[in-house]
């Protein structure tokens, strides 16, 4: 029988529910259990694919081409779970499904209501994840903060779940904030009490509380929380601010959170094995031997979450090289105003991430020119590859104002353009080239050296492609097309001969990097950056 853990959050948003859920998944996996994780998002969009990064942060893409919440990235980085489109459900999807069924006449004249119809659809989606994953434990993170109007149907479905499945098969974990008031030098439990009170009004009594705090919680405080919130003392878990998010599974394990969960479910399993994580991830992050300064040149630099997987993948590359990554976030529009030198003079590597639209494009192109001419290791991702092609076409091949038709539909030299199939597309939601595609890596190239494989799979999220019409010319001038999507003959990777590390890919390798298994493109990028010091 599958066991279900619901993770809710209270007091404030951004408490790190996603990382907490992923960490719980990790410590349960370390006990030999098969886990999967799911995110329920209360917003009405069908998926985050059409949202501005400033609204939502990064859009994480799964192998099967779903555009999902960035928490799925945490789940895949921390655990072995293979996630699909079923692992993220939104209010939009839930209502869409119910309304389509109503229009078909499936409800046979009934009045369609939040309870039981919307909640039934939510529960069915959770059960579907259990079925598809065949996991022992399904962790379900409910987005938003308890008390929000939007998340009520999800919480109600979570409440009903215990009724349907039995107390021994369902567990509720609530994440709260226990603030420290500096002027009073006091730690306050009242917000947690209120938050749990709100949850209990809905009918959910949390079994475990995870208390986010900047200070150590004394025994008295924990006992007070336990008493007022009706949660056993040992199930009041402290989650103090840590240097690296990868320490959190260890912090949880030290407070025997895995044991408390297994006891609740009456599960017996092998003893915990987090040695590899401790030694090869945490110890390395905390005690780096070297340091690399990496510039990320993008246009959503102000928001930490916009390039989440990229920043993590860089950290992974650092872990693999025993090095700390000093991130230099550069706004590409600043490069347009002041030139690249001021920002990129002191860096060991330059990364240009994906993106959409024309704002800041020329700054990215200038940054790439700077990397090419000064032989600074460069990694381009998606739009970053498209910009690398534009830069080379303009500055090496003499194609003046060469561009992508996304930026200038009338450009004389459309080195990046739309495929015929994309020209027919009307709507914006879910219509890009999405998900995992095979790519053949050319022997004798840098890409081959990096991947050490001829057939690779990477995830995609884009509309525009390299325009084959320019392949011969660019090749003649020194660009190497080192990866091709075979069936469709699409350029997936480009590089430059005679440069220590210049590689750009149409895909998003950052989605497949893990702390204990850095993606090879990032690992080698950091190796090259360290050599470039
Ligand atoms: N805007 C570009 C395209 O649609 C690149 C997309 C991206 O970087 N994810 O092709």
Structural class, please? alpha/beta
User: What small molecules accompany the polymer chains?
Assistant: glutamine
Helical region count? 20
- The low-confidence parts are none
Terminal-residue CA separation = 55 Å
* Shape annotation: globular
Largest sheet: spatial strand order: 13-12-14-15-23-22-21-18-19
Q: Compute the number of strand runs.
A: 23
Detailed description of the structure:
By secondary structure, this protein is of the alpha/beta class. The model has no long low-confidence stretch (mean pLDDT 96). The longest helix has 20 residues, at 114-133. The chain starts with a strand and ends with a helix. A hairpin with a 4-residue loop joins strand 8 (180-181) and strand 9 (186-187). Helix 4 (91-104) crosses helix 5, helix 12 (308-320) packs across helix 20 and helix 13 (332-338) crosses helix 15. The strands form 5 sheets. A 9-stranded mixed beta sheet has the order 13-12-14-15-23-22-21-18-19, with helices on both faces. Strands 5-2-6-1-7-10-11 form a 7-stranded parallel beta sheet, sandwiched between helices. Strands 16-17-20 form a 3-stranded mixed beta sheet. Glutamine (GLN) binds next to strand 19.
